[in-house]
Design the sequence.
């Protein structure tokens, strides 16, 4: 399995000094923090979550397209021999089997199924660049950024629905507010 230092080397090699690297560091730190909390009830691998979260956006070395960066990240990590982390890249952009095929991936759903696969996109949506945000604000900002892109706007609706449902499930099961924890944790600085 990929170690954290190996994942960090990959991120730095492909991300160079791009600003999205800061986002990846922030998502990884927050996801690792949450995984410790949720591991009380779910069989999670905090090391995997930390590494996969670090690499979820690595496809941005090639494109910032809202879907293709997930596809490119998947292809890169599969080529490098890291299929589990690769799946996170593809599933964090929520690809169904038809979409996967049209982007040159195997015809199968690349959707978050496991707890780990669901946690990373949730944390991704709770971090705007390297700052904490709410799902409300993040989806509003995404819609503004892609204003006029009908395909994106149609696609984002079920993604928002599923992400909100997962967050509410966690809030209920653990009797906490995921958004509030993210805010408090982030106030100490996410990329340090
Ligand atoms: Fe992404």
Sequence:
């Amino acid at each position: 399995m990929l170690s954290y230092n190996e994942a960090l080397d990959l991120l730095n090699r492909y991300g160079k000094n791009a600003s999205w690297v800061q986002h990846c560091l922030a998502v990884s730190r927050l996801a690792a923090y949450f995984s410790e909390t949720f591991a009380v009830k779910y069989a999670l691998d905090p090391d995997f979550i930390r590494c996969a979260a670090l690499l979820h956006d690595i496809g941005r070395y090639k494109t910032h397209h809202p879907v293709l960066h997930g596809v490119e990240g998947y292809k890169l990590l599969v080529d490098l021999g890291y299929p589990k982390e690769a799946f996170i890249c593809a599933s964090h952009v929520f690809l169904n089997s038809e979409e996967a095929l049209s982007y040159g991936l195997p015809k199968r759903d690349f959707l978050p199924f496991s707890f780990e696969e669901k946690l990373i996109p949730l944390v991704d949506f709770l971090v705007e660049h390297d700052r904490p945000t709410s799902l409300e604000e993040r989806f509003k900002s995404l819609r503004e950024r892609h204003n006029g892109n009908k395909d994106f706007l149609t696609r984002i609706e079920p993604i928002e629905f599923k992400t909100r449902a997962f967050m509410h499930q966690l809030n209920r099961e653990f009797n906490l507010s995921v958004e509030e924890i993210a805010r408090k944790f982030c106030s100490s600085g996410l990329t340090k």
